[in-house]
Amino acid sequence: MMLDTLKTLLAAYGPTGRENAVAETVKTLLSGKADSFETDVLGNLIVTKKGQSGGKTIMFSAHMDHIGLTVADIEKEGYLRVTNVGGLSADGAKGRHVVFGNGVSGVVVCQPPKGETPGMQHLFVDIGVESKEEALKMVQLGDVCVFAPDFFLLGEHRAASPAMDDRSACALLCELVMQAENPKNTIVAVFSTQEEVGTRGATVAAYRVAPDLGVGIDVTAWGDTPEVKLPAVELGKGAAVKFMDRSMIATPAVRDALIAAAEKANAPYQREVLPFGGTDGAAIQHSRGGVPAGTLSIPCRYVHSACEVIDLRDLDSGLAILKTFVNLDF
């Protein structure tokens, strides 16, 4: 069930560069549902479900990593000075509960900036100690904390949590592997690493897989709250087929195939034009001599915050689209 898969993945600790617990969770979820599992040197989990003879190889990529804060220094009083890993702002982090991989909790605090605009240099994490020596018994320089897991439902169809970007897409990709029976085309599901710092995992995975075509799966921004109108994407109106963002112009043949799959499945969908950002779809498209590629997006409010909000109906739409897409003729 999609909701159970989503909640399981959201609970896993997995900041950028430390995605191994998420990968292990995916392997447990997909045990017995795929033909092969491989982990490459960058930590990407590559899961293959073989298609029929004569079919194409389609690489799908959803990233496992989550924005976080890494310990850069420890003051004599035990406060942790931090810097961001991925697109995390000082304003969005202050006052938040964070957790390290070993279970240590902390509170992100922004010191009074004395007339300056609050920035990352003003942040520290309070882990409840009184000295640097005490802090070093709990954390080390280079350790990374993330927003503490906090899944909750909003109304009948929506859910909020840290790490919806991109665990919601990982859940969608897991369900595709679990539910696609004897697909026409081979599914190579890549659960990628280090997307938040430049699609690094998908870049090397796409070179290794050498697919015939590819689809990135990620969240996108929203345009349905006060004073936010772009992109023209709304929660609950279906998964979004990307036309372009700052990193790619979707290959027309792949983009149109995603739209055709949505229409064939009678699944609601939206067209997405994002004036910023980028996804693993671009990494696939740029691989080797170029790979036809597109992106399917999950509308998500308040991206890169501690309460990223999605509509579960959009996940259902995305799954219907992808299950049809893998059985198209290319």
Layout of helices and strands, plus pairs?
Elements: H1 2-10, H2 20-30, E1 36-39, E2 45-49, E3 57-63, E4 68-74, E5 80-85, H3 90-93, E6 97-100, E7 105-110, E8 123-126, H4 132-136, E9 144-147, E10 152-154, E11 158-161, H5 164-179, E12 186-192, H6 200-209, E13 213-220, E14 239-244, H7 252-264, E15 269-273, H8 280-285, E16 293-299, E17 308-311, H9 312-325
Parallel strand pairs: 3-12, 3-13, 13-16, 14-15
Antiparallel strand pairs: 1-2, 2-12, 4-5, 4-9, 5-8, 6-7, 6-9, 7-8, 10-11, 11-17, 14-16
CATH architecture of the largest domain: 3-Layer(aba) Sandwich
| CATH topological fold name of the largest domain | Aminopeptidase
User: What structural class do you assign from the helix and strand content?
Assistant: alpha+beta
Order of helices and strands: HHEEEEEHEEEHEEEHEHEEHEHEEH
Q: What distance separates the N and C termini? A: 30 Å
Strand arrangement across the biggest beta sheet? 1-2-12-3-13-16-14-15
The low-confidence runs, each spanning 5 or more residues with pLDDT under 50, are none
Radius of gyration, whole Å: 20 Å
Shape: globular
- What is the count of DSSP helices, taking H or I runs of 4+ residues? 9
Concise overview:
The protein has 330 residues and is α+β, with helices and mostly antiparallel strands.
Describe this structure in words.
- The structure is a single chain.
- Helices cover 27% and strands 28% of the residues.
- The chain has 330 residues and is α+β, with helices and mostly antiparallel strands.
- The chain folds into 2 domains: 2-66 and 163-325, 3-Layer(aba) Sandwich (Aminopeptidase); 68-146, Elongation Factor Tu (Ef-tu), domain 3.
- A hairpin with a 5-residue loop joins strand 1 (36-39) and strand 2 (45-49).
- Helix 5 (164-179) packs across helix 9.
- It is globular.
- The two termini are 30 Å apart.
